[in-house]
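Predict the 3D structure for this chain.
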Amino acid sequence: MTDVNYVALDGDLTVSKGQKKQTKKLAKKQVNKITPIASKNLKDGAVNGLKLGPIEQVTDTGTIGATAGDTGSATATCPEDTKVVGGGGNTGSSAAVGVGGALDMENKRSNNGWTVSGINLFGGAKTVTAYAYCL
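Done. Predicted structure below.
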């Protein structure tokens, strides 16, 4: 990109229609350019959580069938204008497997969201909940 020097002028600055058109065209080109920023270009401490923006939590709950061996899943999807930065979930059972009766089978990123699935170990309806953290 070329450096631009500005000079203070006395009086009005008149710009022709052709110059305005050329300036708008050049400005549009610059706006449409995307310059990736790599970590090597950032000074230590230049970017932190406060500067990135608020993290939004999105939740989705699904059901696991009532019969032992039934499976179920839930996928929490981030809003269109955000990106998933993490996630997690649970099967809604107690801490001790065998008491709660559901086991996580999958807990991973899925497109722009997070998917959690589980299996019913002993019977009785269970839930599965996915959480996506979006920025």
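Strands lie at 56-64, 71-77, 84-90, 102-110, 113-120, 126-134.
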